[in-house]
């Protein structure tokens, strides 16, 4: 069967994913044009939050690319894109504070983050192997290959699902810290929510696509077993 009923949900989630990407870029562009009343840049905001939370030893580096911002748990470094590092907009400080939120999670051994770090090597390998096994199993009509592919793909999906609470928690920390530490005023928090909520939607959409794909292959596997009986 070339078309599977689950494909409808996969296409739906994939459509949300594309829409979410446009929404992230649109919200970032919009709120990049609104300067913070404090005049702080993304780098300033990140440094202030880090220092005030016992992380003065964590460096902040500039990296090329748009929205390439991330926290490196191995090097324990916050890396910000140029527009975020130097920009003094609501979008810039929001993204910077979000990445610092991950550094604080690391410091406090936030359970979901610890779990994500532990399964990352497995998920990284699994995400590369799973598609090959699943495609080969479908093409050769070998349920054993599909079954092994499902096991590997499950690890990759688990990683994406665990990522959701990690990202949501980092955004929540960012919003709270920016207001309590005087980086933004209360009436500027609306822009922060727009920027961070749009980014969170991309993770939700990506997780949905992966989850629906996993369910599809599981259904194909069990259907094949029934046909063989």
UniProtKB/TrEMBL annotation:
This protein's record includes keyword Transmembrane: yes
Keywords associated with the record: Membrane, Transmembrane, Transmembrane helix
Pfam families reported in the protein's UniProt record: Zn_peptidase_2
InterPro entries: Zn_peptidase_2
Transmembrane segments: 6-22, 119-139, 145-166, 200-222
Superkingdom field: Bacteria
Keyword Ribonucleoprotein: no
Name of the featured protein: Zinc metallopeptidase
């Amino acid at each position: 069967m070339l078309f599977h009923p689950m494909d409808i949900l996969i296409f739906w989630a994939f459509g949300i994913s594309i829409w979410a990407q446009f929404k992230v870029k649109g919200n970032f562009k919009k709120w990049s044009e609104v300067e913070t009343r404090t005049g702080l840049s993304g780098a300033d905001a990140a440094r202030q939050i880090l220092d005030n939370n016992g992380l003065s030893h964590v460096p902040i580096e500039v990296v090329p690319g748009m929205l390439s911002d991330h926290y490196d748990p191995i090097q324990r470094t916050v890396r910000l894109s140029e527009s975020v590092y130097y920009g003094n907009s609501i979008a810039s400080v929001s993204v910077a504070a979000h990445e610092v939120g991950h550094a604080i999670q690391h410091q406090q051994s936030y359970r979901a983050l610890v779990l994500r770090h532990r399964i990352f090597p497995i998920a990284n390998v699994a995400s590369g192997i799973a598609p090959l096994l699943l495609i080969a199993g479908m093409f050769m009509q070998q349920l054993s290959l599909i079954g092994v592919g499902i096991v590997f793909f499950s690890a990759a999906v688990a990683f994406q699902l665990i990522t959701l609470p990690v990202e949501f928690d980092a955004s929540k920390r960012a919003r709270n810290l920016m207001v309590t530490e005087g980086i933004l005023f209360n009436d500027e928090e609306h822009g922060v929510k727009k920027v961070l909520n749009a980014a969170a939607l991309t993770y939700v959409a990506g997780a949905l696509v992966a989850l629906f794909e996993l369910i599809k292959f599981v259904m194909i596997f069990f259907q094949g077993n029934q046909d063989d009986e």
